[in-house]
Amino acid sequence: MATDFEWTRQQFTALPDVIYLDGNSLGLLPKQAAARVARTVTDEWGTMAISGWNRAGWMAAPRQLGDRIGRLIGAEPDHVVVGDTLSIKVYQALAAATRMTDRKVILSDTGNFPSDLYMAEGLISLLDGYELRTVAPDQVAQALTPDVGILMLTEVDYRTGRRHDMAALTQAAQTNGTITVWDLAHSAGATDVNVSAVDADFAVGCTYKFLNAGPGAPAFIYVNPRHADTAHPALSGWLGHKAPFAFDQAYAAGDGIDRMRVGTPPVIQNAALDAALDVWDQVDMADVRAASMALSDHFIAEVEARTNQLTLASPRDAAQRGSQVSFHFAEGYAAMQAVIARGVVGDFRAPDIMRFGITPLYITADDLTRAAEIIADVIEHDLWDRPEYQIRNAVT
Amino acid sequence: MATDFEWTRQQFTALPDVIYLDGNSLGLLPKQAAARVARTVTDEWGTMAISGWNRAGWMAAPRQLGDRIGRLIGAEPDHVVVGDTLSIKVYQALAAATRMTDRKVILSDTGNFPSDLYMAEGLISLLDGYELRTVAPDQVAQALTPDVGILMLTEVDYRTGRRHDMAALTQAAQTNGTITVWDLAHSAGATDVNVSAVDADFAVGCTYKFLNAGPGAPAFIYVNPRHADTAHPALSGWLGHKAPFAFDQAYAAGDGIDRMRVGTPPVIQNAALDAALDVWDQVDMADVRAASMALSDHFIAEVEARTNQLTLASPRDAAQRGSQVSFHFAEGYAAMQAVIARGVVGDFRAPDIMRFGITPLYITADDLTRAAEIIADVIEHDLWDRPEYQIRNAVT
Questions:
Q1: Number of helices (H) and strands (E), helices first, in chain B?
Q2: Which of B209, B259, B306, B321 is the catalytic position?
Q3: One domain for residues A308 and A209
Q4: With an 8 Å Cβ cutoff, are B216 and A248 in contact?
Q5: Distance CA A232, CA B97 (A)
Q6: Contacts for A373 with CB less than 8 Å, ≥ 6 apart
């Protein structure tokens, strides 16, 4: 199918007088989400109560939602499930990976999202003799030494948007006998990631960024089919049990991806995710990726044509970039406050990064041209004219 | 304050033509919840997007909601936080407890909710030399041998409603040098549990049962103040970090209960919890406990006056019972189907338990009298008259 971006744009609630370039942090509200959530609360919980678990499909939803996300990341059907938070899913994947190798080094990079590193630290704090080793992102391939058991990376750097070469690194890891755990937080709905094609062992991600499922939306986990029935679920909750309602005393892992379920699914959050995926169901990720690359290139050109004070922090080659554009700017914190005050919403990441998310489902080239004008105007004029920013600069 | 149960009853959406005795599994919808959730989706997410994290208070909510739950379980302010699922919170408490003792036996009982046992199994599968030991519920005190490092119990048995003597067992554990982890799934909003008075080390619970926060509502965790700044957060997610938005590479546990936060809070579920707690804020737990005991006694008497085929599975002494009444009945599965078909919603737990939740916030003595009439009528007449139940009995 050819993706109709005019249609997708109409599916979202725009913020009045705002160009929203922060969909890589929290996606906009899909128009159908409010009604979907209201239906779940009022018509399902309110009229079915306990029977909603079956009658309204609450119990089955995590698998169905998982499959719809799976299509967007190249997963085989029946190998993705939603639930919990991304940090928990990172832990779950890592814990399973530790049981698949005797090696005790987990390799990651300093560009990884800190919570992934924290969760790895927490996991190995319970284990004997493990090491979490981090190297610079461009040093990962050569750091794949024979002692590395697990490679844990985030495909797209949350600050710069730099993509790892997921296919090459996964292949190199396999050659090295290393299990891969990929975080797709900034990839799902953003890039043409394909977990099946690259043969990743585990992948995890969240749904509140590019997937637009709302604040606190659940995470997802993918387990490669070759591990699906053997992966060890250290977070062995009852809904991952082979027969949750038999209430057996002993745990017996469920079949396939079901074993990665833990506790009761977040039914109301899942309703918002369901509405968000109704838009994604009409989208071809190849189209989204092509649009993202074109829009990002356009935005970089429009900004750079107007100011030379910003230094591109993202790769200039769109193929090596996720769906965001970041600039270094020494006064980035103050500048982003000023830009937001002028109606262009991006965000700041320490120490000096101004970050702008590119979400083709609801952002157009015209939006980005206008955003570039405002950003340049702030950088070239406003920032120096307004006393409040000068004061802020003086104290930060 | 004196609790006004006529007022509380009006705060819930009754199911038409149903006497709902399953609030111990999933509480009814508070009338304000739909509007509160809609506000969060439409007015907050829809108009604030990313800025809702601060402007709408999404980030602060887990602590505020935690304190409101804390009042209901006797916790000191600032020592309860909500998030994740109960299974995850059990794991988190157990993992922290393993770092507080060198002993490697976790004691629990065969009446514990299976997921608690499963999560303990999952945790110790990562550790060396640990044992999960289960004994019959009435054998717990004498099983507190010197090798027991952690005592993990659910205060109220999910099948029978039998309460443990939490004060005595916690005291006995302390005397034995054993850390306590209490699951309050069937206690919060149900009994006069007081974690501070009994000096529990850890307590966890869920909010979708008696607290009425809806399907998939988050869990909570309490950490005793004496451990608050030292408890080891093995699930060390970024929102438990001392400075989550500094994005440091290394984990540093947050102060006090904040360290038990993990990932992004479930904002929409939290909105429903907020509305549910608006009712609880007007309630004195002593009144609820007194009403629960009186209603339960009344229900037992009304049932037993009408049929002698049901055998009370719950303690007859209300002081030893949570807020549910369970009966053994050999044909319990079929009987519960028939009872539900007659508009009395309880549930069945294998092998032979018919379980009825007593929720004084929205259930009255008249409801229970009518429910007893229907139950007795089913047991004494319907069950044997209807071919479909006879068929079901024949095959199960």
A1: 15, 13
A2: B209
A3: no
A4: no
A5: 23
A6: A302, A306
B113 catalytic per annotation: yes
Residue B126 to residue A270, Cβ atoms within 8 A: no
Low-confidence ranges of chain B (pLDDT < 50): 391, 393-396
The whole-angstrom separation of Cα B83 and Cα B97 is 19
Note if B209 is an active site residue: yes
**Together in a domain, A23 and A69:** no
Domain CATH code at residue B240: 3.40.640.10
Return the exposure string of B347-372: e unless at least 16 CB atoms fall within 10 Å of the residue's CB, then b: bbbeebbbbbbbbbbbbbeebbbebb
In Å, the largest CA–CA distance within chain B is 69
Give tens-digit pLDDT for A32-83.
Answer: 999 999 999 999 999 999 999 999 999 999 999 999 999 999 999 999 999 9
Same domain membership, residue B85 and residue B189: yes
Q: Are A120 and A132 in contact (CB under 8 A)?
A: yes
Low-confidence ranges of chain A (pLDDT < 50): 393-396
Q: How many domains does chain B have?
A: 2
Chain B residue numbers with beta carbons less than 8 Å from the beta carbon of A50 are: 22, 25-26, 345, 347
Angstrom distances, CA of residue A362 to CA of A21, A242, A373: 10, 41, 19
Domain that holds residue B275: 59-280
Phi, psi of A45 (to 5 degrees): -55, -45
What is the complex's ipTM, to 2 decimals?
0.96
Q: Describe chain A by its helix, strand, coil percentages, rounded to 5.
A: 45, 15, 40
Residue B1: predicted pLDDT: 73
Mutate to test the interface with B, among A54, A65, A85 (most CBs of B within 10 A): A85
Place of tokens 């959050």: A269
Query: Does one domain contain both A95 and A111?
Result: yes
Last residue of a domain, one of B256, B280, B304: B280
The SS3 assignment for B167 reads helix
Distance CA(B39)–CA(A341), nearest Å, equals 24
At B260, is the secondary structure helix, strand, or coil?
A: helix
Pair A71, A189: CB distance under 8 Å: no
Which pair of tokens denotes residue A388? 């409040």
Q: Cβ contact (<8 Å) for A114 and B248? A: yes
Other C-beta atoms closer than 10 Å to the C-beta of B229 total 13
Asked if residue A11 and residue A126 are part of one domain, the reply reads no
* A24: closest chain B residue by CA: B50
Q: What is the pTM of this model?
A: 0.96
- Find the catalytic residue in B113, B299, B327, B333: B113
* Cα–Cα distance, A104 to A117 (Å, whole number): 15
**In angstroms, rounded to a whole number, what is the distance separating the alpha carbons of residues B388 and B48?**
55
Angle B267-280/B31-38 helices, nearest 10 degrees?
A: 150
SS3 state of residue A105:
strand
Question: Taking CB atoms and an 8 Å cutoff, what residues of chain B touch A336?
Answer: none
Pick from B115, B128, B216: CB nearest A237 = B115
CA distances in angstroms from B235 to A118, B40, B93, listed in the order given: 8, 28, 10
- Candidates B207, B212, B210, B214; CA nearest to B189 is B210
Residue tagged active-site, from B347, B355, B356, B367: B355
Whole-number Å distance between alpha carbons of A183 and B387: 55
B123–A272: do the CB atoms touch at under 8 Å? no
CA distances, B243 to each of A115, A125, B230 (Å): 12, 20, 17
Interface test with B, best of A211, A236, A348 (most B CBs within 10 A): A236
Q: In b/e form, how buried is each residue of B167-192, taking b as 16+ CB within 10 angstroms?
A: eebbebbbebebbbbbbbbbbbbbbb
For residue A382, the model assigns a pLDDT of 78
